[in-house]
Amino acid sequence: MRRTLYLSDLDGTLLRGDETLSPFTIRAVNELAHKGVCFSYATARSAATAEKVTAGLRLRVPVIVHNGVFIWDLQTRRRLAWNCFTPGEAAEISTALQAADVLPVVYTYSGPDGEGRERFHYWSDPVHGMDGLFPGLRAFLETRRGDPRETPTGRREGLLPCSGENPGGLTGEIYYYTCIDRAEKLAPLYERFRERFTCIFSPELYTGAQWLEILPRGANKASAALRLKQLLNCSRLVCFGDAANDLPLFEAADECYAVENAGPAIKERATGVIRANDRDGVAKWLLAHADYA
């Protein structure tokens, strides 16, 4: 029997404009999962923030988080597949960001799988706290208040990898940099690193703040989707999305659908255009067309 993996982006696609799931989408997805439909999501969010906004979903298959850096098992809370920077790559990126006076949010993973801990690190002014940060970065961090992964540092060197010269630096595996600053500061860094790493340079969906995200080479939604398809022994991949970071995923899919609120580039590449995220487009398409295992 043909088995299909259905994979949806979250923000702007499965989630409504207020970053929530509608009761209709929750009921529909849970009903389909219970009947054996192989449904998951692929998101730029971390596992922690993705689980928060998808509360109520009872998914039975792993999910893709951090734009494809991790395939994450929701039941065991373990990484099934992952990409991280080498120590040399992390040192180069961190040093370049510091030289450009860009203060990133740096994500690390420490400890054995199943017992490891994710952290995100950022600089906080010892006197003024987050008031000294770029407004877009400060707004992002305000949404993460109270997150157990939050790890501020009062030393800018604290955002560099640990070394003999910098014993107080970051430890563990570095796997993601989020930079939120003026576009003219971030653009040269994007040009510098875009050929060697996965880089996403675009305004943030909800605030319009300019972001530069730097991921390990080979880390993207498409490669993670194909790996998850293999892990689940699926023969087809059907995807849903709305934004430029979904284009590689669309290229890898057998069928791909853009929500009505998506940008022109992704609509042009799509197999078809479905109802908007605020009108339960993904859930209604799945109810009408999904294959049961």
From TrEMBL:
GO cellular component: cytosol
Swiss-Prot/TrEMBL keywords: Hydrolase
Domain of life according to the entry: Bacteria
GO MF: magnesium ion binding; phosphatase activity
Record has Hydrolase as a keyword: yes
Record-linked InterPro entries: HAD-like_sf, HAD_sf
Pfam families the UniProt entry points to: Hydrolase_3 (PF08282)
Protein name per Swiss-Prot or TrEMBL: Hydrolase
